[in-house]
Structure formats: structure tokens, C-alpha cells
Amino acid sequence: MSSIKKLAGQTAWYGLSSIAARFISYLLTPYLTYKLTEVTYGEQSIVYAFIPFLNVIVTHGMETAYFRFGTKENEEKIYHTSSFSMIFVTTLVIIGLLYWSAPLAQLLQINIHPEYINLVAWIVALDALATIPFSRLRMQEKPKKFALIKVGGILINVISTYVLISTLPQYATTNPDTFISSLYKPGWEVGYILVAGIIQNVFVLILLQKEIRALRFSFDFKLWGQMMLYALPLILVGFGGMINETLDRIMLGWWAPGGSPEANKALVGIYSACYKLAILITISIQAFRMGAEPFFFKQAQSDNAQKTYARVMKFFVITLCIMFLGVVLYIDIWKQFIQNPAMHVGLKVVPILLIANMFLGVYYNLSIWYKLSNKTMAGAWITLLGATITILINYIAIPHFGYMASAWATFFCYGTMMFVSYKWGQRIYPIPYATKKLIAYFMITLLLYGINLLIHAVSKNAPFNYLFATILLFTFIVFVAKIEKKELQNILRKPV
What we know:
Elements: H1 2-26, H2 28-35, H3 38-59, H4 62-69, H5 75-99, H6 101-107, H7 115-139, H8 143-174, H9 179-182, H10 189-207, H11 209-213, H12 221-255, H13 261-275, H14 279-299, H15 305-328, H16 331-334, H17 350-366, H18 368-372, H19 376-401, H20 403-428, H21 435-458, H22 462-483, H23 485-493
């Protein structure tokens, strides 16, 4: 139990930094949906859907391999080897992006702005340089420094975005003959958002200078070969994951039934803005992953590792259920973060995407079986199965149903991955999950959501509806706390 409490403590720091960073970044949503048109918002969503695919290439599984092979005895060797592997691959990626910027811009339907691809190249390169230093902070259990740098970087991004999109145009209008005014480009809002990302990454690297200065030119080819053998399937996992997470925006831009490229990008903008309302679930998943990956590997040698993993899963699912209710029961409040009322038409995708991301969170928890058993290829096959489902449903249904097809594709993709991983993992690395209880909690969550929908259908009194929603949420929390009372007390009593 003390190990769970320790994970909770570290995850709290990673979680608080993720929550703070995501929340600060989330504040850009009302700002950007106010400042940008649906088309421009869709354009920046497509560009940012492309970046994660590049991140998979430049990291090429080195982050997870660093945790898998890193020990106190060889951490320095692992740090140097993985870092220089990433530097080499990143250099190749930058060269490719700069050389093929025009055709890539055409592929992403931003052909009038090929310079956006050049900016993307530098964002990816600078982000790659920070990846292993951030991993080192996690390995050395320094969540406070990790949190400070992450939150600081997001603050710089938000400030830079505001200055470039709001302050710079105003300054250029009132002071047209200055050098700063010459930097202003009308209609270049997506470019300024990318520049803000570059500024953020430079700031982060400055704060990570201690970790970066510790880097020495030391490359162990034998160790690197072992790491790559472990990491190669994770590259497939990464690509499949990005297909499942972000490719739908790009596919919507190609095939949505808008009638023109501009109309399609507007639909992408609506879908992307509404997807932001799944933030509480995605924050929980991100925070959990940050703390859980090194924790799970360290727990692997303990006698009660499987029981620990099962308990972690239970409280993780409970947290996701509470987060789900926190969004859907108060959707009329959350939608105010989307300042363009024309985008509210897409709110019907929110519950579907929330459940889909709950499935994804459970899948990440389940995935420990193939990482610990060195069967990372199993993770690749599962993710590729999900990617196939994503592509097929989007390809067949987007021309007819638009972004609703993308939402349901995400739902079935993550649901299938979760189910297959559970069945496969229980044969290879059995973990005594409280499966029936977790399904019961999930079904109760859906029941409460259904009751809330019925109340909204018959009552238009907003204060009453919010009060009733609060009662439903409080009822669920009290119910779960009563069921798990004994275990919660045990966790709180155990020292770390």
C-alpha cells in the first residue's frame, strides 16, 4: 500500500504540473476560438495534428527504453547513448522537413504557407532535445523541477501567443514605420502560434541547462542495439497511437462533407475545439503516465507487484469516472470556453470522446504487461489494430457523417484496444483486476449521465439543473468512498 501512496505523491506533482500546464494552455481555447475563424482554427489544428507523428520519429522509443534499461549503475551511459541517438535522428528529420516543405504543406492543405513546415521543424527539434533530460528528471524522481519547467514553458507559450496575435498587430497599426512593425504579417495567425511554440521550447532548454550540460559524447553501440531492439516495436506503437489520436483532423480536412477545402477546415476547427472539452480525462491520463511508467518498472521485482497494479487500476478508473461526470454534468458551463458560438454545434461529440479517452486511459494502464514481459511487439500489434479501425471508419464514414464519424472511430478504436490488451495480457502476465467492480462503476457513471439528460430534457431551469447535477456527482463520490472505505483508510495510514 505504501508504494501506491508514493505513486500518488509523485503523480500528484506530475498531475499538478500537467493540470496547471493544460489549464493554462486551455485558457488559449476561448482566446483562440474568439480571435480565429473556424477555418483558421481548423488550419492550426491540422498543423498540430502533424507534429506528433514527427515526435514519434525523433524519439523512436528512446524515452521508454531509457526507463527500461536505466539503473543507478548505468544511468549515465544510458543518458548519453539515448540522447545522441535522438540528436542524430532529429537532424535527419529537420533536413527532410526543410527540403520537402512545399509538398508537405500541400498534403496538409496549407500550401499557401509552406513556411509553417519550417517552423514545425524547429519546434520538433527543440522539443526532442528536451525529451531525455525530462526523462532523467523523472528517473531521478525530481517531480518538482519537472513541474516547474513544464508550467513555466506553457506560461511563456501563452504570453508569446497573446503578444504575437493581439499586441503585435496593434503596435504595427499605431507605429507602422518601426522594425517591429515590419515583422507583422496579416493573416499569419497560425505562424505566430508556431513561433510561440519555438519560444517556449527555447525557454525550456534554458531551464534544463544543467541536464544538457551533463551530456558527454559517449555512445555505447552494443547498449544502443539492445535499446533499439526493445524500442523498434514502440515506434510502431507510437505511429499507431498518433493515427488514433490526431490523424482524424487531417482526414477530416481531406474528406469532410463541407464542399470545399475551406469548409472542411472549418469542420476540423469545430471538432478540434469541442475535443478540447475532454481535457479533464486527458489531464488525468497524462499525469498518470508520467508517474506510473517509472513506478511500474521499479515495482516489477516486488512480491506483490500484480496486486499493486490491480489497486492502481481500480483507483485510476474511479478517478476517470469522476472526471467524466465532472464534464458531462456541467457541459453548459464548459462550452463557454469555446467563445465562437458557431462551434457549439459540435458539442454532441464530447461524451463520445470522453468515454473513448477513458478506454485509452485503461489501455495505458493495461499495457504494463507487454512492457514488463519484453513483448513490446504485442503493443505494436494492438495499436496497429486500433489504427486500422480508425482509418477504416474515418475513410468510410467521414464523407457521410463528418466529425461524428471521427468521434465514433475514436470510441471503437480505443475500446477495441482496451479489450484486446486485457484478454491478451491476462494470459501472459495475469493481474487480479477487480474487473466486475470496475465495469459496475462505469455503468453507474453512464446511468447517472442518462438521468441528467432526462432532467435537462424536461427542465429548462439552469440553477435547478446545476444543483441536480451536483447531487448526482456527490452521490457517486460518496457511494464509491463508502465501498472503498477500508482500502482508502489503509493507504492513508501507510507511510511512504
